[in-house]
Write a structure and sequence with these properties.
The complex is a heterotrimer of chains A (about 325), B (about 290) and C (about 260). By secondary structure, chain A is an alpha/beta fold. Helix content of chain A is about 35%, strand content about 25%. Chain A has helices at about 15-20, 70-75, 120-130, 135-145, 160-175, 190-205, 220-225, 240-250, 265-270, 295-305, 320-330, and strands spanning about 30-40, 45-55, 55-60, 85-90, 90-95, 105, 180-185, 210-215, 225-230, 235-240, 255-260, 275-280, 285-290, 310-315. Classes of the chains: A alpha/beta (about 325), B mainly alpha (about 290), C mainly alpha (about 260).
Amino acid sequence: MTTEITPTSRTEPSEASRAATGRPGPGVPATIEVEGVSKWYGDKVAVSDLTFALGPGVTALLGPNGAGKSTTLKMLTGQLRPSRGAVRVLGQPVMDNPPLYRRIGLVPEQEGLYPFLTGREFVELAAQLHRLPRPRQAAEEALHTVEMLDAADRRLGGYSKGMRQRVKIAQALVHDPDVLMLDEPLTGADPRQRLALMETFTRLGAAGKTVLISSHILYEVERMGSNVLVIVNGKLAAEGDFHAIRALMDDRPRRVRVTCSDPRAVAARLVALPGTLSVSVESDALVAETAAPLEFHHAVSRAAQGAEARLYGIEGLDEDLESVFRYLVSR
Amino acid sequence: MSEQVAGARIIDRGYQHYDGARLGLTHATRVMTWAAIKRALGIRRPFRHKILPWLLLLVSFGPAAFLLAFRVFVPAALGNNLPSYDSIYNRLTAVYLLFAGLAAPDLLCADRRERVLSLYFAAPITRLRYVASQYAGLVCLLLLMTLVPMLVLFAGNALLANSAWDYLRQHTDDLWHIMLSGALTAVYFSALAVAVASFTDRRAYATGTYVGLLLVSGVVSAILVRIVHFSGSEWLALINLVFLPVRVIRGLFDVPAEPALNPWACAGVMLGLIAVSLSLLVWRYARIRD
Amino acid sequence: MRPIFLLTLRALARGRRLLVVAALLLVPALLALIYRLSAPYNQNGAHPAHPFRDYILPFQIDLFSQLVVPILLPLTALIFATSALGGEIEDRTLIYLTLRPVSRLTIGVAKLLATALVTVVLVEASLALTYAIAAQGQSGAGDGLAAILLAGLAGCLGYVSLFLLIGLLAPRRALLIGFIYVMAWEGLAAGFSTGLATLSVRRYVEGILHAGLNAIRVPEIQWPNVTGATSIAVLAAIFIAGLALTTWQLHRIELT
């Protein structure tokens, strides 16, 4: 099995979505602004002193269970009032501001729906409440986007979990909002549907919408965009491009996997490098832990040459979002 | 060189198979009944679940306690008009009714709403045993309210009489009547309550339906008795589900009720209602698929 | 407003709940039927001159005051009103109405009107049916119908607005609170001082009925000491206040 020789990264943001990164910048005004926001219930602090700004593009909201992701999302949609601090969406306060809601879409986490409505009626209701000129058509399009047209005329009470989730996404998309917030939108969808939905969200992000996704499925989230907000224990643990976050985590060594024809010989040479912390040998590859990744990368081909081994591939093992996340959570 | 390993061992903390004694279904049923009793009284639950049940329990002891206190401390105040047992039952009907209406949904509806029935039935507990244990628990509690205060009153009366033995011998009938009245009342209100509670998942609806049903039956029967006059129409008074036990009790104690109906027939109707209620309960639970 | 109104209508008028309420509201009609069939005033050879005025109408009013007003009417309003908003909060669907460019007042009005419509239709139908069964073919029939219907309507509106608000403020306990209010507060306050009784919807409903029946004496019932105009004014005030407070709470509600 051959693999490429160039260092691979499992996440390559596409050209199009690079334009809308989720981060505000010069010429890119912030669409979501959160300043010093805290929320507590009596003695229990759910979220503490959050400050961040998001712009057009896809941003992932990550955090362990109970970290405060849902609370944060609810404050961003006016469902909860911050105990302190200010939340602004599209430049306006979001609490009790119905005209603003025309431009916001929410896929809530909770499952509650109207069991006596059909899927179509439910999405049409959303379209009507948003005062769309042609609610029926808009509903058709939204249902088509989430692939629910076949089941649209069945009652919500009989829907499976995945179908309910998709219909919730449809009601959030029907009015073409500028800001879309999704709380665990991929749960219950089968892999093919998840791919289709992720494509939709990526497309929306590329088109300049602000998409904030709270999710646990990290390897899928990182396919949609690289901007992340990590919340741990109610506090913001990291924000920004997760590749850059990774680069910042230099107090932690990198693990690299080198696939070659004679791993033991190559390993022997690599162990000699001052930055190498450990090397473990497998049948067709070696895994090294190094504190100096750049030097390591330079040294690998020389080591292979010296050991007269064929080099098949080099792969960073903890470049992905999952490792970044794990690190941030455990700090 | 001998190697003495000084008492070291590694303990297997993983999943262990249980090979000990198994106590059997009767024990399980008894445990569940006791658990039902504790649950209805709010034991091991937050304080707010204890307020109403204990309050009602206290109130049910009220008349007996007051009567005895009066007799001991201020005997002149009562004179010879001691409230009879049946009149106490009459006054306390609301208390029994309310207790059953609050406790039965607590015992039955919560398990269904939280969908834990499948956990129960995964063990060798049959649906019948489950339902029987909840009902038995409720009946025990109601017996505590309908029987014990009266027995205490009876005992108090005996002790305060000139000769306790004479009193006992003269009033043995009363003792049996008390036992029967208490038992019937407890079984009756419990049966109605659990039947209603088996039809809905929400506690509030169950309590409301039970209380509403009884109240409406009372009002309707009063109206009907007033407006309908054909022979035998006084039997319409039996529609009053609340007053039915008191009719039977009055019959037992030989006190006339209004309108005068044969107490045996009333007892028959009461037993019939109990049978129907319990059948409904069992039928509902036989059909439930969690 | 229309979509929310229609949605609420559909949510309320469906399923087992509707059947149970309808069955409850048929009870007075059934009793009226029994009354007509047994015609107690025609017993023992007596055939009064004005059976409707002297017997049937008092019976109707008795039925209304003993069964409908204290129990059936508030219960119907309670069941529907607590479900209309409180139920949405419990089922976590309210977000689909509030996170829209729709004013809170619109939501409140739509919910109130839909609930009122369902309640009024059922209750008034029951009252009319009961009256029709009892009054059919009698001379002098028609007296008192308007009073009963008006009192019923006012009662529905007052209770619905009140219970809608309670459902919003305490969704999980709304049924219990409403129950206690109707049974304990209104039941007992009727017996005690008029000071407490001013906070009882039932009192004003009876006041309207009394005023509407002004020419017809119904001696057995103890009427509350309040004029028809005051009663209508108070119930209208309760209706408006309920709506205002509901709207206010919708502005500030937090949906956990």
